[in-house]
Design a protein that fits this description.
The complex is a heterotetramer, with two copies of chain A (about 325 residues) and two copies of chain B (about 300 residues). Chain A has about 325 residues and is an alpha/beta fold. In chain A, about 35% of the residues lie in helices and about 20% in strands. In chain A, about 70% of the residues are buried. The chains are: A alpha/beta (about 325), B alpha/beta (about 300). Bound molecules: thiamine diphosphate (TPP) (2 copies) and magnesium ion (MG) (2 copies).
Chain lengths: ~325, ~300, ~325, ~300
C-alpha cells in the first residue's frame, strides 16, 4: 500500500506543483525518489510531528495541498490537537498519512501498534478518515483525498493482499466497495485486513455460507446506505478491523444500525479486545493471536450463524479473542 | 460611563507604507506614512476593557499588555488592506496567545476590517467573536488559536510557503512568555532557523507573568535571548510599550538576512490601567462598576 | 464539580502524602489553598502538558498517585501519546483531570470546547474514563479513581445541578446510578448534562411519560448490565451527552446492545452532530442551540415515543440538532 | 558462524561501586570496583548484531552507537542489583531512544538481569522483547519507549520524586540526537533546570545521523551545548566511545550541584563494524550472510 501511495503521489505531484509531502524523518528508501524529483515539494521536518502538522496547515493556507507522513501513532496521537485546531478547524488541505496501521509493525512494540487511530480521528469534526483495503484502494484513495477539500486521514498498512478491483471500477470516498457478493452474512472490513476477510469468505463458501464482503475504506463519512442494505438483504453483519473494538468501525456500524432502527438479524464485531499487546510478532502472528486471522473469522461467522465447522484447535482462540458478549 | 457600550469612534486608516512593501494595496486607498499609533493603542485599550467587562470575560491584562504592539503593527507596520483582507501579498499576522483575542478584534475593527459596533458581540451568545481569537466570519484574522503553542508552526509554514513562491511579504507571530513553556514552539524555532526563514518574525510579549505566578517562579526563561540565539535566531530586546522602538524594530525586521527574528518585547501585563498592572489577578478578573469607571478614566484621552 | 473535586482531593492529600497534584499553569483561585497547604504535593509544571504527563508517570512510578490538572482539551489531546505510552502502558497511577467538559467554556471558542475527549480516551487500553453528573458524583469519583489502580480520566464540567444522591448511597465506578426510576423509556446521561436529563424527565412525567434516568458516570468500563436491563425493562433508550455523537456514550451503548443482541425497542442518541461550533456562548446557550437543552430532550423523547407534546418553537431545533436518522 | 545463535557467555558482575553510592545492594553480591567494560561493550555489540540479524530488524547502527555508553553505565556507573531489580535505592536508567532496545536487552542480560539465552527471543513471534524497549516481563527495564521524546519527562518525574523523598540515587536518560527535534524534550529540559534536578543526567548519543540524513542536513543542532546551557543545564562534551572519560564523567555527575547534567557524547553510528559506521543505511539494514560474517569477524575478541 505504501508503495502504491507514493507512486500515485508522485504522479499527482508531477501534474500539480501545489502538492507537497512533509515527512517527520521517516521513509528511508520509500521517499527518496520523490525527494530528489520534487525538491520544492518535499520537506523533512525532522522528528517533530506537532511542528510538521502546524507547518502543513500554514502551507495549506498558502494554497498547497500538504501530505504529512510518518509511522503509526506519530502523525496522529503526537499532534492530535494540531490536527484538530489547526488543520480541521481551518478546513486546511492537510492530508495525514500514517503507514503501519494496526500490527503492521508488530515486532516493534506498542509504540508502533496503531490500533486506536480510527476511533480517535473519527471523533474529530471536519475530517475524512480513510483506511484502504488493498493497494488499488490506497492509490485511488490518494487521488480522492487530494480532491477532497479539507483535512483527511489515510491509514496504510503493510499487508499485501492482491487487489480485487475490476478494471472498470471507480473508487469513491464514502462509498463502500462490494468486494464479494453473498446473502448469508455481510462481512464489513476496513484496512488491509480486508484480505483476511476475503479469504475467510472463500473458506466460508466451502462451508456453504455465502458471504457479502464490503470494503469500508472510508470510516468517515460512513456509507450508512451500504450498512443498512446489508442489514436488510443479508443474514447479518460482522465487522472486521485490526483496531480496538471500542469506537472504531464496529462501533460506527452499531451506531448506524440503531440510529436507523434497522437491526441486522445477526451481529458481531471482530477487533481487538485484549488491550495493549506487550507480546510482539509479525502482523500475521499477532492477527492470529488476537483472533483476526482467517480461521478465527471463519469460526466466528460459523458460530454466529449457528453452524458447526471443521474445528480443530480454533475454538479456544475464538472465545478468547472475539467473544461478542461484553 | 459604567455601561459597557461603544461610542462611535473614527476608523483610523492604518495602512502604512511598509518598509519591505511591494507596492500599492489592491483596495485603492492611498497609504499614509504616519499614524497616531498612540491614539490607536488607547482606543484599543478602551475597547478591550469594555469588551471584557461586557462579556465578564478574563484576559484583560493579557490584552492591555499587547495593545501597543498591536497598534504599531496595524498602524505602521503590516502591509494589509482592510478592503481586501485576503490580498495575496499582505503581511500575515498570527496571534498565538489566542486568549488576547479581544485585542485583535478591537485592532481589526479600528483598522477598518469590520464595523466597530461588532465588538459589542464579543463573548455574547450566538457570536463569532469568541474569547480566543477565531477566524470564522471575522475578516482579517488569519488563524484561530486558543491553545498555546500552535501559532509559530503555522506561521513557519506560511513563511516557508512565501519563500518557496518567491513572495516578499512577512509573517508576524505574537506569542506570550508563558507560551514558551510549550515544546511545540521549540520545534518551530529549531525548524525556522534551519530553513533560514528570515521572513518570519516572532514577537514575545514578555510581561513576566503567567496564569498563576510570575514566569520566574513558574518556569524561569532567563537567559531568554540566549535560548533563541542558541537556536539560531536573531534577537532584539525592546520596550514593548515604546512605539518608536516597536516601529523601527518591526518595520526593519529581519535583523539579519537568513535568520528569523525574535523580538523580545518587555511589557507590563495590564499596561495602561494602574491597578491592573503587574498583577496575575487581572489575568482573570473583569472590571465592573467602580473598577470599570476607574479603568476607563485612566484610559481617557489626556487633555 | 470543580470545587467538589478539589475539596475532596484536599481531604485525600491530607490523609495520604503520596497524593500529588500537578497543574499545567491553570487553577487560579481554585488550587491556591491546596498549593499552600501541601507544597510538597503540589506542582505547577508550566504550560507544558506533554511534560506534565511524563512527569506524572515518573512520579507515579516512584510510588505516588498523581493528578494532572488542566482545562478542556489541553491535558488530553495535547499529550495523548504520553497518556497512552507512558501512563496507560505502565499502569501508572496517573489521574488526568480536565475541567471544562463539553461547552463549559462555551464563550472561549473551539480550542476550549471539549467535545471529543470521551471517544478519544475510551479508545485507549488500560484507562478508566469517568464523567460525573453532579458535585456529589465528582467528589466520590475523585476518591474512587484514587483507589483504582492505573490511569484514570476525570472529566468535570461547569454545570451546577443540585446533587440527587440519597444519604445512604454508595458510588461505584463502572456502575450506573439510577437517578430516577421509570419504565416508558430510559435516558442515559453522562457528565453534567445529567441535570438536563433529570429536568426533562420531570417534564416528561407531566406528559405522562415515566422516564428512567441513569447517570452513566463511568464510560469505561461501561455498565453493560444496566444498559441491557434498560433494554429489557423499559420502552427504549435515549443517550444524552454534551459531546460528539461519534463514538462516545451513545456509541458505546449501541455497541453494547448489538453485541449482546438485546435491542432496545426504541433508540435515539442525543449529542453533537454539527461539528465545530464557531458560534460561541454560555454553556446553556450552546446546549439549547445544539439541541441539548431540556426542551429539546423532551421533544426528542416525545417524538421517539410517537407522542405529541406541547410544541411551540421547538420542532425546527429538534430536527436540526437531534435528528436520529443518519 | 553465520547463524545468529548465541554462544554461552559468562555473565559479568557489573555491580560497581557507585560514586554517590548509598551502600550495599540488597542482593548480597559484593560489589567490585573495576570491570572490563571494553569486553562487555564488545559482547554487547556481538549480541546486537546477532539479534538484529536473527530478527531481520532495523536499528543495528543505533545500537552500536551506544554500546560503549551502555557498557560503562552497567559495568561501572549504575548502582543496580540484578538480583533485586526493583531495589528502591537503585539508580534509574531510561533509554529514551527506544529503537535501540536490543542494546538494552543485551546489556541487561550480560549484567545478569535475565539469562542471555532469552536474547534469542528478540523480535520473535510471541516474545516480550520488542524492537523498541519494553518493560513488561523484562527485569531491569524501567520504562518502555519507542516514540521519541518521552523519556526525559518521565526521568524528570523520577528525579523530582527522589529529591522530594530525600533519596540519593540518580536518574540517567539516554537520548538520541535526532530525538532532540521533539519539543517535548525541551519542555522537560526547561523544567528540570528550573527545579534544580541535579540528580538527573541526560546523555545524548550525538552520532550526527538521523533516519534519512545527517542531523546537520535535517535540523542542525549546533551550537548544541549552548542550547542546553541556555536552558540552565551543565554540559560536558566527551567522546562517547572512550570508556575512561565515560566512566569519570558519568560517575561524577552532576557536574554542578543544583543543575541537571547533559553529557553530549560524540559517537559514531554503527561504531565497531567498519562498514556500518557513519551510515544511514545501517539504521535500517540487517546484516545477513557475508555481511553478518564480516561484522562478527570485526567484533571478535582481539588476539
Ligand atoms: C495549551 C494550553 N494550555 C493552557 C492554556 C490556558 N492558559 C491560557 S493563558 C495561560 C497562560 C498565561 O500566561 P502567558 O502565556 O504568559 O500569557 P499572558 O496572558 O501573560 O500574555 C494559560 C496557561 C492554554 N490556553 N493553552
Ligand atoms: C515520535 C517519533 N517519531 C518518529 C520515530 C521514528 N524514528 C525512529 S528512529 C528515528 C530517528 C533516528 O535518528 P536518531 O534519533 O538520531 O537516532 P539514532 O538512531 O541516530 O540513535 C525516527 C525518526 C519515532 N520512533 N518516534
Ligand atoms: Mg505572560
Ligand atoms: Mg542519531
Amino acid at each position: 500500500m505504501r508503495d502504491a501511495f507514493i507512486q500515485r503521489l508522485t504522479d499527482l505531484a508531477e501534474s500539480d506543483p501545489r502538492v507537497m509531502l512533509i515527512t517527520a524523518d521517516l521513509g528511508f528508501g520509500v521517499l527518496t525518489k520523490f525527494a530528489e524529483r520534487f525538491p520544492k515539494q518535499y520537506l523533512n521536518a525532522g522528528v517533530a510531528e506537532q511542528n510538521m502538522t502546524g507547518l502543513a496547515t500554514g502551507l495549506a493556507m498558502e494554497g498547497r495541498t500538504v501530505f504529512t507522513y510518518s509511522i503509526a501513532n506519530f502523525p496522529v496521537l503526537r499532534c492530535l490537537e494540531q490536527i484538530r485546531n489547526d488543520a480541521c478547524y481551518h478546513d486546511a488541505n492537510v492530508k495525514i498519512v500514517a503507514i503501519g496501521g494496526g500490527f503492521s509493525y508488530g515486532s516493534l512494540g506498542i509504540s508502533h501498534h496503531a490500533t486506536e487511530d480510527l476511533s480517535i480521528l473519527r471523533a474529530l469534526p471536519s475530517i475524512t478518515v480513510v483506511a484502504p483495503g488493498d493497494a488499488w484502494e490506497a492509490a485511488e484513495a490518494t487521488t480522492a483525498i487530494l480532491n477532497t477539500p479539507g483535512t483527511c486521514y489515510l491509514r496504510l498498512d503493510r499487508s499485501s493482499m492482491k487487489s480485487t478491483n475490476l478494471a472498470s471500477e471507480r473508487f469513491q470516498l464514502g462509498r463502500a466497495r462490494l468486494a464479494r457478493e453473498g446473502r448469508d452474512i455481510t462481512l464489513i472490513a476496513t484496512g488491509g485486513i480486508l484480505g483476511v476477510g476475503l479469504k475467510a469468505a472463500e473458506q466460508l463458501a466451502e462451508h456453504g455460507i455465502e458471504c457479502r464482503v464490503l470494503s469500508m475504506h472510508t470510516i468517515k463519512p460512513l456509507d450508512t446506505q451500504a450498512i443498512l442494505s446489508a442489514c436488510r438483504e443479508t443474514g447479518g453483519i460482522v465487522t472486521l478491523e485490526e483496531h480496538t473494538i471500542e469506537g472504531g468501525l464496529g462501533g460506527a456500524v452499531a451506531e448506524t444500525c440503531l440510529d436507523a432502527g434497522v437491526i441486522p438479524p445477526k451481529f458481531r464485531r471482530i477487533g481487538l479486545r485484549a488491550g495493549f499487546s506487550s507480546i510482539v510478532g509479525s502482523q500475521e502472528y499477532l492477527r492470529e493471536r488476537y483472533g483476526l486471522d482467517e480461521r478465527s473469522v471463519v469460526a466466528a461467522i460459523c458460530d454466529l450463524l449457528g453452524q458447526r465447522f471443521d474445528k480443530d484447535r480454533n475454538e479456544s482462540r475464538i472465545s478468547e479473542g472475539v467473544a461478542a458478549e461484553a | 460611563m459604567s455601561a459597557a457600550r461603544y461610542e462611535s469612534s473614527t476608523v483610523v486608516d492604518t495602512r502604512a507604507h511598509h518598509a519591505n512593501g511591494t507596492g500599492a494595496r489592491p483596495g485603492g486607498h492611498a497609504p499614509e506614512s504616519l499614524k497616531d499609533t498612540t491614539a490607536l493603542a488607547r482606543r484599543v485599550r478602551q475597547h478591550v476593557v469594555r469588551m471584557t467587562s461586557k462579556g465578564v470575560s478574563a484576559h484583560v491584562g493579557s490584552c492591555l499588555s499587547i495593545a501597543d504592539i498591536m497598534a504599531v503593527l496595524y498602524g505602521e507596520v503590516l502591509n494589509v488592506d482592510p478592503a481586501v483582507p485576503q490580498w495575496t501579498e499582505r503581511d500575515r499576522f498570527i496571534l498565538s496567545k489566542g486568549h488576547a483575542g479581544a485585542c485583535v478584534y478591537a485592532t481589526l475593527a479600528e483598522s477598518g476590517f469590520f464595523p466597530i459596533s461588532r465588538l459589542d458581540d464579543h463573548y455574547q451568545n450566538g457570536s463569532n467573536l469568541s474569547g480566543h481569537v477565531s477566524h470564522k466570519g471575522i475578516p482579517g484574522v488569519e488563524l484561530s488559536t486558543g491553545s498555546l503553542g500552535h501559532g509559530l508552526s503555522v506561521g513557519a509554514g506560511m513563511a516557508l510557503g512565501a519563500k518557496t513562491d518567491g513572495q516578499r511579504h512577512r509573517v508576524f507571530v505574537l506569542m506570550s512568555d508563558g507560551e514558551c513553556d510549550e515544546g511545540s514552539n521549540w520545534e518551530a524555532i529549531l525548524f525556522a532557523a534551519h530553513h533560514k526563514l528570515d521572513n518570519l518574525i516572532a514577537i514575545v510579549d514578555y510581561n513576566k507573568l503567567q496564569s498563576l505566578k510570575s514566569v520566574e517562579e513558574t518556569l524561569a526563561l532567563e537567559p531568554f535571548a540566549d535560548k533563541w540565539r542558541s537556536f539560531g535566531w536573531s534577537v532584539v530586546e525592546i520596550d514593548g510599550h515604546d512605539h518608536a522602538s516597536l516601529k523601527s524594530t518591526l518595520s526593519s525586521a529581519p535583523i539579519e538576512s537568513g535568520k528569523p527574528t525574535c523580538v523580545i518585547a518587555h511589557t507590563v501585563k495590564g499596561k495602561g490601567v494602574s491597578f491592573m498592572e503587574h498583577s496575575v489577578l487581572w489575568h482573570y478578573r473583569t472590571a465592573c462598576g467602580d473598577e470599570y469607571d476607574a479603568a476607563m478614566l485612566e484610559l481617557e484621552p489626556p487633555l
